[in-house]
Amino acid sequence: MSDEQEPEPIADPIDIELEALYAQLDAAVAERAPVCQISGRCCRFREYGHTLFLSSIEFAYLVANAPPPIRPIDDGATCPWQDRVGRCTARTARPLGCRVYFCDPAYEGEAPELTEQFLGLLKRLAERHDRTWQYAPLHRHLRDREPSSADADSIAPIGEGPAANAGRQGPASGLAAGFFS
Ligand code: SF4
Predict the structure, then answer these.
(1) Cβ of 100 below 6 Å from ligand 1
(2) 73 lines ligand 1 (CB under 6 A)
């Protein structure tokens, strides 16, 4: 038996910068002190009339660092990482849109400015690391990740293994307005 230990995986430099950016955003949101009552409405997209958009670099980070989804991937109505009581099971890896969105009416006007500011930082991060900027709904990323997207219900749980799509291809979309629309 060998005493040699498995080497620690080397973190992708873009992930380190993305985590710093997320921490910066979390601090900016915390300063504004929005209230979350765990209504879960932010993650029930169709019921509340919004769509979660995220970039390729965020999606790659999400699937590499979140646990597998706890529910089947549907046609875009809900997030597969939301548990039965409305909590996020991908909290540490959730994308910018989830971090900035709160349904607190007192905070409502703050989200667009924060979104615009941090989208710009995200896009520059992708450019610095020569990564494709594909800004699309969560369920499009999930479907694109599969070899066959004909049957969304057949998609296996994700979240295991290395970040498979750090260099995903797709048209650069520029800065879209808001993560939820
Ligand atoms: S990743 Fe988490 S916070 Fe974002 S939509 Fe899904 S369950 Fe909600």
Answers:
(1) no
(2) no
* DSSP string across 79-131: -TTB-TTS-BSSGGG--HHHHH----GGGGGGHHHHHHHHHHHHHHHHHHTT-
Residue 75 neighbours by CB under 8 Å, 6+ apart: 139, 152
In the chain, domain spans: 13-28+37-154
Q: Is 142 in the pocket of ligand 1 (CB under 6 A)?
A: no
Q: Is the dihedral of CA 66, 13, 119, 22 positive or negative?
A: positive
Least confident of 47-56, 93-102, 172-181: 172-181
Instruction: Report residue 3's pLDDT band, with 50, 70 and 90 as the boundaries.
Output: low
Dist. CA 172–CA 76, nearest whole Å: 22
Output the six-digit token pair for 35: 């209230």
pLDDT tens per residue, range 83-113: 998 899 999 999 999 999 998 999 989 999 9
Ligand 1: atom nearest CA of 82 is 7
Q: Is the CB of 81 under 6 A from ligand 1?
A: yes
Question: Which atom, in ligand 1's list, is nearest to the CA of 93?
Answer: 1
Global pTM value: 0.78
Residue 146, Cα to own-chain centre: how many angstroms? Answer: 17
Task: State the Rg of the chain over Cα.
Answer: 17
